[in-house]
Each structure stands twice: as C-alpha cells, then as structure tokens.
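User: Please run a holo structure prediction.
Assistant: Happy to. Please share the sequence and the ligand.
User: Here you go; the ligand is NBX.
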Amino acid sequence: MHNSQESVIKIEIDSGFKCKSRDSIKKSILNHLTYTLSKDKFSATKLDIYMSVALAVKDYLSERWSKTQRTYHNEKAKRVYYLSLEFLMGKSFLNSLVNLGLYDEFNDVVKELGSSLEEIDAAEFDAGLGNGGLGRLAACFLDSMATMELPAYGYGIRYEYGIFFQRIANGYQIETPDPWLRYGSPWEIPRPEYLYPVKFYGYVQTSTDAEGKYICEWKGFSDVMAMAYDIPIPGYKNNTVNNLRLWAAKSSRDFDLSYFNHGNYEQAVSDKVITETLSKVLYPNDNVFEGKELRLKQEYFFVSATLQDIVRRYKKSHAKDFSRFSDMNAIQLNDTHPAIAIAELMRLLIDIEGLSWDESWAITTKTFAYTNHTVLPEALERWSIGLLAKVLPRHIQIIFEINSRFLSEVAGKFPGDNNILGRMSIIEEGEDKKVSMANLAIVGSHSVNGVSALHSGIIKDTLFKDFYLMWPEKFNNKTNGITPRRWLTVCNPALSNLITEAIGEEWVKDLSRLKKLTPFAVDSSFCEKWEKVKVENKNRLAEYILKTNGVKVDPQSIFDCQIKRIHEYKRQLLNVLHAISLYNILKENPKAINCKRTVIFGGKAAPGYYTAKLIIKLANSVADVINNDPAIDDKLKIVFLANYGVSLAEKIIPAANLSEQISTAGTEASGTGNMKFALNGALTIGTLDGANVEILEEVGKDNIFIFGHDSNEVNQLKSSGYCSYNYYNSIDSLKQTINMISSGFFSRDDANRFKPITDSLLYNDHYLLFADYESYMETQRQVEKEFVDKKIWTRKSVFNVAGSGKFSSDRTIAEYNSDIWRLKPVPIKP
Ligand code: NBX
Ligand code: IMP
C-alpha cells in the first residue's frame, strides 16, 4: 500500500444528516455552483447546472454512505460481494432523487432556479458499462440489495469508454466511442488510498522452507496498480447507501519516482500509457466469447484487486484467522467472467496466508456461488492453456491441481466411466487445450444457478448434466427480476401515480401488491385514466421519433417494440419477415387489416458481428420502402431508433403496447426486457422461452400471445433433420417475402446485398425462423383483432401490470439471500 488508509481525524464527525428543507437544498446547489465550480449567473452552462444540482444530491448520499459503511464495520456484518465485468447503470440523477425521497423538494427548487428536472436529467451521460441483460441485471441487483438493507458491494471495472455509441448512417450501424467521463462524473469518488498491485506474466519458483514446507513464489512478473473509484448506491427511502467499487488501471511506475528520474523519460511515459489501456474499454460482445489476451487481463485485474480488498476488510476484524472467512463473506460470480477468482483466492490463502490446500479449498467453495446466464456454446469462456499459463503462471498450476483432485473424486463416484472424466474435466483435451471456466466455476462453488425456471432446467438436463448428477444439491433457480424503482417509478411517473392512487404506495417496496390492481381492470373510469397515460407516453415517443428519424408515426397505432441486442437467436429477422408479409397483405388490400401498426426496433450489434449488422441494414431498408409507399395508407410504419441503451429504454417502454420476445425456445436464458414491458402495461407476443414462461403463468394465457415451437419441440425438430427449405416451398407468403429480399426489392443498388441472410435462412436456419413463421403470423393477426377493441386491450394491460409482481429484483435478491448468501439485513439509523 503506497498511501495509508489510516484516518488522521481524531474528532467525532458524525453530526446527523443534512436538513432536507427546500432552503437548504437551494443553498447547497448555489454553494456548489459558486465554490465547487466557480460559476455565476453569467457563466453557468447547462452542464454546470447539472453538476451543481448533482453534487447537492451527492451530499445527501455521502453522509448516508459513510454511516452505512461504519455501521457494517461496527456490527461486523456478513457481506456479499457481487463480482461483475459489467454494470449497466444508466443515469443516476432522477433515480437518486426518488430513492432519497427528495424528488418533490428538488423539483421545486430547480424550477425556482429557472431549470427543470427534465433538463438536468438530459445533461447526464449514461454510465453504459455493460452490453445488455447481464450488465443491467447487476445494476438492478445493486438497487434491490440497498433497498433490502443488505451489506452488499458491487465490484467491477471503471472503463473509460463504455458501450459504444451507435449512429445509423444510410441504414448501417456506425460505432463511435462513448467518452462518458469526458466532463467528469459527479457520482464517483476517487479513492487513491485504495490501491493494489496486480501481477501478470513471469514464472513460479518452488522451494522448501526451513520446516520442509513446499513454497511457491511468483517471480519475474510485471505489475499494474488498481485504484478504487466508488459510486454510491442508495436504497429506496431508507438510509442505506451501499458501495459500487470500480477499479481503474494506473501505471505502477507512477508510484516509482526513480523510473522517471533515471530511466528514459519517453519510454517511461509510453509504458504508462500501455499499462493504463487495461481499463480503457468495455468489450462490446454480448453472448459471445472472444479469447483475447487483454480481456483475460481485465478479468484478472479486477478479480485480484477485489479479493485483496475483501481480504483487507476481513483482516481488520479477524486478523489472520481465516476460519470464519466464509461465515463473513459471500461472493457471487456474475457468469464466468470473474471465475478466475476461484484460483486467485486459493493462491492468496496458500501462497500468501500460508494455509493448507484443504483448508483453502473448504473456504473457497463455501464462499463462491456462480450464476450462469447463457447456454449458447459460442458464449462459454474457454481460455487456451498457453495464454493462461503465460499471463497467470501460478493460476494455471492451481487450476491443474484443482482439476486433478476433482477428477479423482469423479472417478470414485462413477467408477469405470472414462467418458465422463473427459466431459467434466476443467481442462478440455484437444490440439489447443482449453480451460473451461464454467467447469471451474461449478467445481469451485457451493451454488450454481440459472436465471429462469426453464433455463435452470436446461442447465441441469443438458449443459451441466454430469455435474448435476454428481452434486444435485448445488443446483438451483433464481428467476431474474427488475427494479420497480427505475422501471416504473422513475421512467413512468404518470402510471406510477395512478397505481399509487388506486392501491397505495407500498407496491414500490413490495411489488406483489400489484395484484390489488386486478379489480380495477373492470373499473371504466380507472381504465380511461390508464389509457390516457399510455397515450400521453406514446405522444412523447412519437415526438422523439419525428425528431430523431424524421418519421411521423400515429400515436393511435399499436406501438410494437423489439428493443434488445441484435443477435440471430433473438430473431429480429423474424419480426422483419412479419413486417414485409404484413406489407404484402396491405398492398393487396389496405382494408384487409384495420389496425395501424408502428414497428419499433432498437439495439446494438457487436462491431465484429457481420450478420447482426446486416440485419440492421435490412430493417432500415425495409423501413425505407414501406414508410414511403403511399399505397398502404400509413397503416404500417417501421422505425429503427439509434443508440439503444438504458435511457432510450426508459423512453420506449412506457409507450409500448406490444412487447416482442420471440427468441427460439431454449436460447434466451431469461430476458428482463420482457418484464419491464409487462410492468408498464404492454402485452407480450412471445415464445415459450426464458422468463416468458413465467410471465404466462403470472398473467394468464388470455393476457399474453404465445406462439411457436416450445423448447422440447425445437429439440425434436433439430434431431429429426430440420429442413427450412420445405417451409419456404409450402408457405406462399413466406416464399414471396424471402424472394423479395433475395431479388433486391429492398436493395435496388445491390440486389445481392441480403443474399447472405436469405441463403442462411433457406439452407440452414439454425434458429428455426421458418418453422415458427406461420404461427407468428397468425398470432399477430390475433393481436390486431384485440388491439382495435380498446376496452379489451386496456383490461389486459391492467392484468399485465397486476401480474408483474413476481418480477421485482427485490424478490430475486430475497431468494439469493435466503438460499445462498444468508445475510442479516442491517438497517441504518437516521
Ligand atoms: O443475461 C443475458 C441473457 O442473454 C438474458 O437472457 C438474461 O436475461 C440476462 C440476465 O440474466 N446475457 C447477457 O447479457 N450476456 C452478456 O451480455 C455477455 C457479455 C459478455 C460475454 C458474454 C455474455 N462475454
Ligand atoms: P472499508 O469497508 O474498510 O473499505 O471502509 C469503508 C468505510 O467504512 C470507511 O471509509 C469508513 O467510513 C468506514 N470504516 C472503515 N473502518 C471502520 C471501522 O473500523 N469502524 C467504523 N467504520 C469504519
């Protein structure tokens, strides 16, 4: 440690919380403007206003943050650490106000100062430190853990560049960097005193000490420093403020003056730049593994700094007695991205703390729990042995040792079965040997969970079948959830208020109370208000669409939304095929369907994912043709909204009527967008995949549109030699649609542009779009019939909200806690 964490203040500074009066708030904002930013009424920009108001909000967070951390120490609480390479936080301003219970006060003060909460919110950059569902789930979990008063910490990387910005130019995705820290973030607190060295490369030297004990030493390494930045995570209307600690890479040379003094100055500066690239940028892949050295180093960098911090905190109360470590700490691994932590904790306990292998292994397996988020084979992390051995020479030894002990156990359990050893081995044999991080995570954890009932079943029956046979008690399900604060209170205040008027405000902390809305579904004056809220939300989105895309959409049309990462398994293409087929129906007879439709797409494609990018171009090309064809009487519009992320989701979801959740059954682990839509009164059209299955159970079959093959039927189709070409040949409208795409109807300047898409559908169709096409078409016709009857639709909309109670991340976190972590809530006194 280069900078002591020892406090130098000897007086008591806990003087209670700041006054929440409008006067104090105003004073605090003006103080920040005047003293922190040195601005006045002649020079304050929009950014200055945002900064000074945000800093005033942070003052309220800071005092609660300190008190929360002090209380955890004083009460020697058991803690949970949520380790994730991604935290998709979005904006913090409005969410902090709502959680602090200061929304109305700030609203008034800010108006008095000549601004508005909306304007201030617009000046904030999203913290986009994640790709999609997995990263946003981590953010929802932080909110729930703080709301439930659990001593919880998020740990991750402070990427200088988050998920790229997406622009659409000529229908194509263009990526530009996301410099979210360009003007600094008012929410983060740099902590230069929390600074840890992280080692890479080098070799392991073995020896025996005076007592004959075998010693391993990591030598010849180079190191990078990890410096902490903290972000406060407030609970909803309690005094808890938990901590999200993100690590930034700093050159270790910065802390070594002689390097600059005696070395080559230019070399010194360029070395510094190279080491600091470690935390520069988030890898923009979603559900795909890319075996890059820099990514492996990111994973280890944050894991190593985090475990050093956890051990430091533990030792403050337990010194070198590690026997209580797993009683005091739970570590949850968000997928396998941080799974190297299992080898790292073993290394710390054995090489640094001097514990035996067996003691260390018992502590490790009792501490770790692993959450799987995908069954897609291309997403599973499998690091090549050569790379791992080069970057982490000690860890590869530890992994081999874990594996050899584990395989002896397997051999004892399944005598004579040699195949099972190969299937369960952490080391995958082959020309280029690989370390299966999923297998390591399962072996090193006491709990393995999937993220929906269906997905957890698939894990047990197929993906991790052998492990389930060996340790059935390790496996469990934790159906995902979303925080009702951001995904209803903050993003849809009008609906939120209407619900509170009807059933009281307790639903915000106990979402199961939404059940009480059920009788209101038949109350016509309530339903009128409900409809009005939705229409107002749609009007706002229509304005936004006009501004960004120049397309005029009818707020009376059905807002049909598919917003998520672009991926073949999510089948945005099936949605596009439907839009073209619908266009063909309307071309033939504009009166054939008397329901107007606006199809809204949003989503980023990984920059290296060729097919996903071509799908974006296709959606935009189809939109161009259809939106400009007067023959269909404005019955159908298609828009692709650029730069989908948390903030855009908060605009779209409250305005949606129809939620598209149409992945091939068995591929989407859970989905969480599906839950956000239902909570905001949209009806789902979906397959029996992921959490859709549970949404169906909660809202009832009359209030959701289910179509297509279920996961068993998908498996049967695939094993009996699925041939998509037969569907093409026998379904006329499908044939017409595919022929239009392949003949250049949507690409007049290059008839072959979309051939890769049509060829892959005709001759492979890995995700069975053709097999589900007819059922999807029929179900969409049913949707139209029901949408034109406003009364019926609104009733179903209310039933969807009433049935969403299960999908609060508070419920999910309560289950993690009672089944896996077993923490006692620690309330923070005012
Ligand atoms: O995790 C997602 C699943 O696809 C969703 O079904 C699920 O609801 C969600 C939360 O459980 N997975 C996901 O978002 N994965 C990634 O973003 C990802 C990122 C990097 C990577 C692999 C996967 N290397
Ligand atoms: P950490 O949990 O050790 O990382 O410390 C986080 C914060 O908790 C510190 O900044 C202090 O505000 C508080 N804290 C740390 N140590 C103690 C202690 O021994 N008693 C009470 N509060 C503490």
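The chain has a mean pLDDT of 97.
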